[in-house]
Structures are given as C-alpha cells and as structure tokens.
Design a protein that fits this description.
alpha/beta, globular, 13 helices, 533 residues, eight-stranded parallel beta barrel
C-alpha cells in the first residue's frame, strides 16, 4: 500500500539536537508503506501522454527495495587508455576522448598544432598517427572485446550484492552498444560485432537481477566540431560514416529510443540528455508508452531516471544525482544531506574515472560501503559505474573491490534491502548526532538497524586518503534507541546475543563479538518498542 499526502510545508522538531532545526519537505511527499519485500502495487493504470495521467505513476517495488545497481561505460573510447591532462576533467577520461582527436579542424581551417588542453590530440598523433588516417573509425576496429564474457560479469555483479545491472547503451560518441536498425555503425555491425546489450541483459536476468540501459548522447557533443569544420574530402564527411559523426535528429533519436525500449525491455532507462525532453509531446508520449509496455512485460514495473529536479518531472521519474564534483581535480561529495521523501539514485564511478584509462583503480571498499549505507538511510540507491578495458576484461582493482563489497553484503545487506530510513520522531533516534555522526539507521518490520560506518560521511577526503574505519568497542552506546523489553540484539554476521541495558534514554551494549564479523560498517539489529513507520 502507498499513500500520497499533499501539503505545503511540514515542520519536524528533532529533540536530541543541541539546536532544533526545521526540515522543509516538498509540496507533496510520497510515503511508502511496504507490506513485504517484493510486494507489487495492485493498481493498474493505462497511462496517457499528459502530466495528469503520469502523475499516477508509482515507483516499482523492486526499485523501492533495491540497494545497489551497476553499469559499465564501455566504447571505442576505451581503447587508448589515455588520462586527460586537466585534473578537473580526468573523471571523463575515456568517455570524451573521441572529440579531441579532431581538434585540428577549426573554424579558420586545418591547424596541425591546435589548442589541446586535454592532451588528446598530441597523444593520438604520437600513438596512432594522423587523425585523418587513424581517426575514430580506426579505434572502432581496435575495439574487439575479444575476452568479454557476459556471464563472468553478471556473476561478479550478483556476488557484489547488485539488484540491477546493465550498461551505457550509447554514450556521447553516438556508438550504440546494441544492434540498431537506425545507426549503421554500432557494436553489432562493426568492431566487436556483438550485441552487448542483448548478451549482458540475458546474463543479468538469468541471475535474477533487473536490467538498466543508460543513454548519454547529446546533440553534437563529441563530434560536432569535426562535423562542422572537417574538409569535404575528410573521412568525417564520408557518407558511410555519417551515422557516427552527424548528430542524431530528434526524429531519428526518438526511433532509436523506442527500439532500445521495445527490443531490449530494460527495467530502468537512465536518460542523460535533453533530446526527448526538448519536446513536451515527444517526452510525454515516450514515457507513457514505456510505462504501459512495462506493465505488459509483467516484470515488476519500469522507471526512468534523470537529473531534472522540477516537481513536474519528479512526479513520473526518479531523481539521479551524478558523481561528485572535481574542482581543481579534487573530488567533492554530492548527494542528499537529509532523507528524501521519494526514492532517488546516485550514480558514481567505482574508480577514478567513468571509463577505462590508465590508473582507473577502485575506491577503498569502506568508502564504497559508507556511501551505500548513507544513501539507503536517506532513501537512496547507489548506481556504481565500472570501467572495462577494450578487450572486455574489468580492471583487477575493480574486480577485487566488487568481491570485497560482496563479502560485506553477504552479512550486512539485510540492514539495507527493503529497509526504510528511520523516521524522525520526537524523543526518538537522533539520526545525525549518534556516535559523532558515524551511525546510520534503517528500519524494517519490527527491527531497527544501526550501522556504524566508523567514518564521518560525507567525507572531505579523496579516494587515496580515505581513512580506515574505526572499529566499535564495548561498552557501545546508542543515544535515543529504545529496544523492546527482552529484545535480542545481534551484530549481523555473528550469532552472538549481545547483552545490553538502558541508561536513561541511551542503549548501552555491554559486549561485542570478538572478532568482529567485518572490517567496516558494522550493523546492529535491534527489536524496537515504538515503531512508527
């Protein structure tokens, strides 16, 4: 059952803070009341292409319950492995490489020594040769994915605790990673000659995960300069490469989106471009068609995620907050500071860059876990981006990180899956100040989960200097937590019943497991007395 509550403003006082503050919630709030994990809404709606009809849309239960998704940024741009020179742009190394190849084509003609702030042109000429002979079509030939095994990837995703998985079906290079009827240059007809979307979706579904396809092509964003300024005899102007270099018209792009939707039936579409939204009628028709098709597929419902924060958009889509910020090349956190009333998604690279480039690496696993836990406690889902090499293998550091993440999930995912943020209530848990800001709370059924990150989050530290998690020690105090009389308290991953007592309004856990069951983000499972969600 779900209840939609309409109101202008709600003021909630938090008792345990030294200074009370107000949380101003949006005009409308969606409150989820889940009868049980996997329960689907009985509501059947035939959506019409208008805002009023689409405002009836409800986020699918599978996404309301999800904890973690994963996708890959993979394309011919993965071939060079080049790291951009500008620190502030390095996170996009591998994604936007192709545009830099053609920096020599300028409004004033050919320039063999063009402005090259990212260093792509200089690197490409030294490594491959003249871009006119060895341009992006040449990289497509080198993009072979000869070692790719979709089942191996899907097994890793499943082990890591992923609830949904997929790929960037088309990025800024306009190179579809599927067999497209409307783009003659794609992964099935050129290069590796494989339908990556079809094969990966099959492997993912075989393991019980939902699927996601992301689309990121912006009009003229990567090859716009080359298309505009390349001479008539350039390969850029060769009719056989037109589908690659010329930006899609809105009509062509719409056909491709319908093809992707109908042919591959993704459970989530993450739309990172304005092409559909630029036309109100086109957008509303596509969204209504997708949601109606999703109901016909009978797989639990579909959703569109996107970056727009307008109230009207968020009535029928899920908010996505992308990555972090890199001012001066240094990572800066971006996300929710407070629980958000609607389910939201945070997509973030697992390593230093979205796509493969030398030194892509992997974040410390405790940093990954801390972010995942923090987001669930604020009603968010984490969407990790992996960076495969051109041969189809994942970097060893990312494989290792995903396995270690899975080791943690094996014991602790119970505290996150189908759990809901601990609601603020007068005299209840002080979700922000407990243990100096290192504890996050979730609720499920009659249980409260208190997860101690052992680190403060959000962090001001980068990947390389993220600190080890500080282990909890006994006696361990949680302020404002009220277990049920005779409650059994355990730490997930251990069967040991932990003795406890109350000191005023504070729960004091007298003993902890020895050894602790994991190395970071320790989860206490507590039966609570006053359930209010």
């Amino acid at each position: 059952m779900r209840i939609v509550i309409h109101f202008k403003e709600t003021k909630i006082k938090i008792k345990n803070l030294s200074t009370c503050f107000l949380i101003i919630l949006p005009f409308w709030v969606l409150v989820s009341s889940c009868v049980g994990a996997g329960t689907e809404s009985a509501k059947k709606v035939k959506y019409e292409p208008n805002y009023g009809s689409l405002s009836q849309w409800e986020c699918p239960q599978w996404f309301e319950d999800a904890v973690l998704g994963v996708y890959v940024h993979w394309s011919p741009g993965s071939v060079p492995g080049f790291v951009f020179k500008l620190p502030s742009e390095r996170v996009d190394s591998g994604i936007w490489y192709g545009g830099g190849i053609y920096a020599c084509y300028t409004a004033s003609g050919y320039n063999p020594k063009p402005k090259d702030p990212l260093g792509v042109y200089e690197f490409h000429v030294k490594t491959y040769g003249d871009p006119e002979k060895f341009g992006y079509p040449y990289l497509i030939k080198l993009f072979r994915a000869e070692k790719w095994d979709p089942d191996e990837w899907a097994e890793l995703f499943k082990y890591a605790g992923c609830d949904y998985a997929g790929l960037a079906a088309e990025h800024g290079d306009g190179y579809p990673m599927y067999n497209s009827t409307y783009d003659s240059i794609n992964s099935f007809t050129t290069g590796p000659k494989r339908d990556f979307t079809k094969e990966l979706f099959a492997a993912v579904r075989k393991r019980g995960m939902m699927t996601v396809a992301t689309v990121h092509e912006h009009p003229g964003s990567l090859f716009g300069r080359a298309w505009e300024f390349a001479p008539a005899d350039s390969h850029v102007r060769d009719p056989k490469y037109r589908d690659l270099f010329e930006a899609d018209s809105p009509q062509k792009y719409t056909k491709k989106m319908y093809e992707l939707m109908e042919k591959y039936q993704p459970d989530q579409l993450w739309i990172d471009n304005p092409i559909l939204r630029n036309s109100k009628s086109r957008w509303l028709k596509f969204v209504s068609d997708y949601y109606n098709k999703g109901a016909e597929w009978g797989k639990g419902g579909t959703l569109i995620s996107q970056k727009g924060r307008s109230e009207r958009l968020l009535q029928h889509t899920v908010l996505d907050i992308e990555g972090g910020h890199f001012p001066g090349g240094k990572w800066r956190w971006a996300g929710m500071k407070e629980p958000y009333p609607k389910r939201w998604q945070k997509d973030v690279p697992i390593g230093n860059y979205w796509a493969y480039a030398e030194g892509v690496g992997c974040r410390p696993v405790n940093m990954l876990v801390d972010g995942i836990v923090d987001r669930v406690s604020k009603n968010g889902v984490t969407f990790l981006g992996l960076a495969p090499k051109a041969d189809g293998t994942l970097p060893e550091a990312q494989i290792k990180g995903m396995r270690e993440l899975g080791d943690w999930m094996k014991h602790n995912k119970e505290a996150l899956y189908a759990a809901r943020p601990e609601p603020f209530k007068e005299g209840g848990v002080d979700a922000w100040q407990a243990r100096g800001g290192t504890v996050r709370f979730t609720e499920k059924g009659n249980y409260l989960y208190a997860i101690d990150l052992g680190n403060k989050w959000p962090t001001t530290r980068g990947f390389a200097d993220y600190e080890d998690s500080k282990k909890p020690t006994a006696p361990y105090t949680l302020g404002g937590v009220k277990p049920a009389k005779g409650s059994e308290i355990i730490m997930l991953g251990s069967n040991k019943r932990l003795p406890w007592k109350m000191e005023g309004n504070n729960l004091v856990i007298m003993e902890l497991p020895d050894p602790l069951p994991c190395d970071y983000a320790w989860s206490f499972k507590i039966q609570i007395l006053d359930k209010s969600w």
